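Raw record, unedited: D-alanyl-D-alanine endopeptidase
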Amino acid sequence: MLKLALAAAISMMFLLAPPDAAARTKHKGRTAAAKHVKQVKPKRTDLAKVIADDNRQRMVRRIEMVHGKRRVVYQRVRRAAPAIAILSAGDLVGLNKTHDPLDLRSSVAYVMDQTSSEVLFEKNSTVALPIASITKLMTGLLVVQAHQNLDEVLTITDADVDKHKYTSSRLAVGARMTRGNLLHIALMSSENRAAAALGRNYPGGIDAFVAAMNAKARELGMNDTHYVDSSGLSSQNVSSARDLAKLAITAHQEPLLRQYTTDPNYAVQASGRTLQYHNTNYLVKMPDWNIGLQKTGFINEAGRCLVMQAMIQGRNVIMVFLDSKGKQSRTADAGRMRKWLEALKPAIPAAAAAAVPVTVSAVVPGTAAQ
């Protein structure tokens, strides 16, 4: 009986083995069936590692009350994956390695006296980089200077949906809103579908609008600047800090742009619904800041960006910060710059200060100072 049982067991092992492995019943002292079993049954330590590493999950123990009785429940939850550092366009060319006396978190900075046009501080200011939603400042300038009817009601369509970055929006397809309100939330809250709708409803459509954006840039002497859309979602919207200072000076001359970019919050009507929007720059709410114009921007390729006009110690200044690292770093850099200017002016008259600007530059392949 023992022999019959042993024979039956050996036969079953051969039946479980792959057909091509049966011919190699002996290979280095092991049967094919044994090899097959070893492949699907790892060691205990290996199995524990697989379970621990599987989708970075872990078991959480919690207690529930079911029909008045305590019951222990184990639930599998996913751990958050570690953050992966994403390099910006500035990082890729080494601008983040440029050091400056103020220890700014922005790879690019440019500060000038708005009245005298004297440069007070600059760091990599001639390098053209992606500018994200700073683009909307040019969008607003074109809409205002084209004298389009701000009371005309426009409709959000599928053409306004972001198919580049797939960003979300509170403006649903089919939502109706006046051009003025679309302009307001595009500038104040950086609403992308609003900016897209503004460009699409320009005479000649979005292509004509982008062409007008680039024509206006050339008119203003913004030689490092190029636009491909009205929202800034594309990383192909590029400019230098010096160019953006020129845009800020021109935009500051428009009262509507000053108001819309600095309103702390605003409620709009969209197809019968009230939507509350807030400014992307919290500094406009701070009583110790006197800001006349501002615009923020962010995409991964651009980093955190900020363009701002402000009065500091009685002096109107234009500030531009590009490719900043950290969610609040661009506004923190603005604070560092303000403290530096406040300390500078009592010690040195404005004219003398303008004559000795701080200039910090990095050597960037393929770029040249303008």
